[in-house]
Design brief:
This protein is of the alpha/beta class. It has five helices and five strands. The longest helix has 15 residues. The model has no long low-confidence stretch (mean pLDDT about 90).
Length: about 120
């Protein structure tokens, strides 16, 4: 696993999300959640860049966002469920449904705007 993903899990409050625990995770994140679908970090150098963006989203929205890092073994299932075609991706989920997905790396305002829109629907 990439060190930046480790930091998300160990220092920034992100959680592992597995297929069996996904619905429970999303219920706890009633206002909205981010699912970080990483892909293979060694083959996808953008994974580190997106991990930095996720870290900054956690800081920017201080406690208002729950972040789930999708476990490798359940990635295919969760990608199908939310229509994720490219990895890494950040999926914004509210009420169990994807409200926005940002594939690969994008501009910071895109990530921030998607989070604001999801949280504004609360």
């Amino acid at each position: 696993m990439h060190p930046l993903v480790d930091q998300l899990l160990q220092e920034q409050g992100a959680r592992w999300v597995e297929g069996a625990g996904l619905d429970a995770f999303l219920e706890e994140a009633a206002d909205g959640a981010l699912l970080f679908v990483r892909g293979e970090a060694l083959r996808k150098p953008e994974t580190a860049d997106v991990a930095v963006v996720v870290r900054e989203l956690l800081r920017e929205f201080d406690g208002r966002l729950q972040v789930g890092v999708v476990a490798d073994r359940d990635e295919a299932e969760i990608k199908r469920r939310y229509g994720v075609l490219a990895v890494p991706s950040v999926v914004y989920v509210r009420g169990g449904k994807a409200v926005s997905t940002i594939p690969r790396i994008a501009d910071w305002p895109d990530y921030k705007r998607a989070a604001e829109q999801m949280l504004a629907a609360a």
